[in-house]
Amino acid sequence: MKVFKFGGASVKDAAAVRNVGTILKSQPPDNNFILVVVSAMGKTTNGLEQVFEQAFQQLDFTSALNNLKQYHYQILQDLFTAQHPVYQQVENLFQQLETYLLTVTASDFYDKQYDQVVSYGELLASVILNEYLEHVEVPSTWLDCRPIIRTDSIWREAKVDWNLTQNNVENHVKPLLQEKHVVTQGFLGGTFDGLTTTLGREGSDYTAAIFAHCLSAQSVTIWKDVAGLLNADPKLFPDTVLYQEISFQETVEMAYYGASVIHPKTIKPLATSRIPLYVKSFLQPEAPGTIIHDCRHDKIAPAFILKQQQCLISFQEKDFAFINESNLSTIFAALANYRFRINLMQNSAISFSVCTDYDANRLHLFIQSLQDHFTIHYNTGLTLFTIKNYDEPSITRLTKEKEILLEQRTRTTYQFVSKTGIS
Ligand SMILES: Nc1ncnc2c1ncn2[C@@H]1O[C@H](COP(=O)(O)OP(=O)(O)O)[C@@H](O)[C@H]1O
Ligand SMILES: N[C@@H](CC(=O)OP(=O)(O)O)C(=O)O
C-alpha cells in the first residue's frame, strides 16, 4: 500500500488536476490502492486566511470569498459538464463556510475560528479531485480525515493522538483501501468533540506521513514542481544539485533549518517505521526524483537553506550582571510560553541572543513579560542562512557582501544571521 501526496501546486488548475489523474492511471495495476492526500488548490489557504482575517475584524469578506469561489468554479467548468453533481457538493461547502464566517467573532478564539475556516481549502480540493478521478474511471472514494486523525485542541498546531489515530486508520481506512484509491485532505485533524484542527501551515506532507505510519505503507511519494530534493531552493539559487539518495537524518535537519520543500514533522513517523519517502516531479513523473530513506552515504553537496522573516533578540541583565543559568531559564520559559522556536542562540558574558521566527503580536507580549528583568534589543526583517555540509568555498559564496549579525559553526553546519537576504 502506498501513500501519494499532492500539494497546492499539483492541483492549482484543471490541467494540473488532469495530470494527477494521469499519474494515478499510470500506476502499475498491482491491486494496491493508493491513499491520496491532497492540499488546498494553488494559494487557496492564503486566500482563506485573508477571508478569515476580514471576518474576524467584522469587515465585509464577500469580495475575497467570491475570488475563491470563482477560482474553484473555473476549475470545475474546465473539468466537468454543467450537470455534474460536483457543482452541488462544492456549492454546499461554500454555503457551510459562509454560514460559519457569519458567526465569527472578534474574540479570544482567533486560532480556533481560524482552523474552522482555512480547512475548507482541503475539503474543496479533495472533493473535486475525487470526483475527477471517478469521472476518468480511476476508482476512488472520498474520506473525511477529521474523524480519523484525532488531535488535541492546540489550534493551528494540533498534536496527533497516535493511538486513537492508529485505531481509526485500522478500522476505517484500511477496509476502504481494499476496494479503491482513497482521496483525503492534508493539513487537517479533528478533536474528540468534532471540531476541525490544523497541523501547522504546509502540514499536508506530515498528514501523508501520519497515514503511512498508521498503514505501515510501503512508501510515500510527495509530488512537487521540482525534480526532487535539491541542495537549495531553485527559486533562489540558479545552480542547484539533485540529491538522488539521502538519509532521513540529513533531510530532517534540512527541513528543520528551513528547506521548505518538506514539512519538518514529516520525517519522524517515516523514519521510525522505515518507510521510504520519494520526492518526485509531477511534471516529469517517470523521472526517479529523490529517495529519502534509512541509508548511509558519502558527504553530499553543501545544502544552502534560508529562513526569512527572522528576528534577533538580545537580552542583558539591567545591572550588567553575568548571564547565568537562572536568568537563562527565565528567558527560555518565556520563549516557550509565547511559542517562539529558537532557530539559533548564542551567549556572551553579559548578553544572550536568540534568533526566532518573527511574529509582531507575540514579540510585543514576550518583551513586555521580560522587560523588568532585562534590557532587550531586537532587529527584525532578517534572514537566517544555513549551510549543511559546508566547505570554505560555500561559505565564501554565501557570506559575500553580507553584514553578519550572528555567526555559528559546528562540524557540519555553518549558520549566520544577516540583514541582507538573497535577491
Ligand atoms: N531544497 C529544496 N529542494 C527542492 N525544492 C525546494 C527546496 N527548498 C525549497 N524548495 C521549494 O519548495 C517548493 C515545493 O514545495 P511546496 O511549495 O511546499 O510544494 P507544495 O505546496 O506543492 O507541496 C519548490 O517549488 C521550491 O521552490
Ligand atoms: N494548504 C495548507 C497545507 C499544505 O501543506 O499545503 P501545501 O502542500 O500546498 O504546501 C497550506 O498551504 O499551509
TrEMBL record:
InterPro entries given in the database record: AceGlu_kinase-like_sf, Asp/Glu/Uridylate_kinase, Asp_kin_monofn, Asp_kinase, AsparK_Bifunc_asparK/hSer_DH
Pathway(s) of this molecule: Amino-acid biosynthesis; L-lysine biosynthesis via DAP pathway; (S)-tetrahydrodipicolinate from L-aspartate: step 1/4; Amino-acid biosynthesis; L-methionine biosynthesis via de novo pathway; L-homoserine from L-aspartate: step 1/3; Amino-acid biosynthesis; L-threonine biosynthesis; L-threonine from L-aspartate: step 1/5
Segments passing through the bilayer: none
Keywords on record: Amino-acid biosynthesis, ATP-binding, Kinase, Nucleotide-binding, Transferase
Taxonomic path: Bacteria, Pseudomonadati, Bacteroidota, Cytophagia, Cytophagales
GO annotation, cellular component aspect: cytosol
UniProt GO MF annotations: aspartate kinase activity; ATP binding
Keyword Nucleotide-binding applies: yes
Keyword Repeat among record annotations: no
Reaction(s) this enzyme catalyzes, per UniProt: L-aspartate + ATP = 4-phospho-L-aspartate + ADP
Annotated GO biological process: homoserine biosynthetic process; lysine biosynthetic process via diaminopimelate; threonine biosynthetic process
Pfam short name (any one): AA_kinase
Protein name in the entry: Aspartokinase
Signal peptide boundaries: none
Enzyme Commission (EC) number: 2.7.2.4
Family designation: Belongs to the aspartokinase family.
Residues in Aspartate/glutamate/uridylate kinase domain copies: 2-281
